[in-house]
Design a protein that fits this description.
Elements lengths: L7 E3 L14 E5 L11 E4 L6 E8 L4 E4 L17 E8 L5 E3 L3 H25 L10 E2 L2 E4 L5 E5 L2 E6 L5 E3 L2 H6 E2 L9
Parallel strand pairs: 8-13
Antiparallel strand pairs: 1-2, 2-6, 3-4, 3-6, 4-5, 6-7, 9-10, 10-11, 11-12
C-alpha cells in the first residue's frame, strides 16, 4: 500500500534492518535520477507494496538496488521512468529524527551489514544441531503492539523479537534466538 503522501513512508520489513527499525517514519525528498549516488537509500513505488533499498550500482540510465540484509540485488533495476524518492531523514520510535547517510558513507554501512548477514548465516549453520533444545528457552511475555501491526516481545526490559504485520519474526540479535522464545500465534494475547 503506497503511503498517503510521497513525502513520508512507514518502514516495515527486515531488508534494511540495522539502518531502520520497523515502525519508523522515513522522510522522502524528490530528486532527479542523475543526482543519485551509490550508497543512497530510495523508496521505490514501482510495485505494491513499495520498498526501501540502497543503490549499490549506478550508471547513466539505470541503478541496481539491494536491501542491506539481502543476499542478492533486486531483479528490477531502477530507471529514470520509475517513481522513487530519496530517503533523507528517519524518525525513530522514540521520536528522535536522524539524518540518513548516503553516498560513500552509505556504501560503507552497506558493506558492514553484508558482513553481519554472512556471519549470522554461518552462526545459524553452527547452531542448527541445537534446535531440538528450543523448548528450554525462556518465554518472552511482555508484548508491545504498534500502530502498523508490528508486535514486539521483551523479557523484562530486554527487547527480544518482533513480528511484522506480514507475520515474519525478527529477533533483535541472533543470540536472543538461543535464550528466548516468543509466543506462537495460538499463544498470543488478543
Amino acid at each position: 500500500m503506497p503511503p498517503e503522501t510521497t513525502n513520508e513512508a512507514l518502514y516495515t520489513g527486515n531488508s534494511m534492518r540495522g539502518m531502520f527499525v520497523p515502525g519508523e517514519t522515513l522522510f522522502l525528498a524528490e530528486t532527479p535520477f542523475e543526482t543519485l549516488q551509490k550508497g543512497d537509500i530510495v523508496a521505490i513505488f514501482s510495485r505494491t507494496p513499495y520498498y526501501v533499498h540502497r543503490v549499490v550500482e549506478k550508471n547513466t540510465d539505470r541503478a541496481v538496488t539491494m536491501g542491506d540484509n539481502n543476499a542478492r540485488p533486486d531483479t528490477l533495476p531502477l530507471t529514470p521512468d520509475i517513481r522513487f524518492r530519496l530517503v533523507v531523514l528517519a524518525r525513530g520510535l522514540d521520536g528522535t529524527v536522524r539524518q540518513v547517510t548516503g553516498g560513500e558513507a552509505g556504501m560503507m554501512r552497506f558493506r558492514v551489514q553484508q558482513r553481519k548477514r554472512k556471519r549470522r548465516g554461518f552462526a545459524m549453520l553452527l547452531l542448527a544441531p541445537f534446535r531440538p533444545l528450543k523448548s528450554l528457552r525462556i518465554p518472552a511475555r511482555r508484548e508491545t503492539r504498534f500502530r502498523d501491526g508490528t508486535v514486539q516481545w521483551s523479557f523484562g526490559r530486554i527487547p527480544v523479537a518482533a513480528r511484522t504485520p506480514e507475520g515474519k519474526t525478527v529477533y533483535q540479535h541472533w543470540s536472543k534466538r538461543l535464550f528466548f522464545r516468543i509466543p506462537g500465534p495460538a499463544e498470543q494475547k488478543d
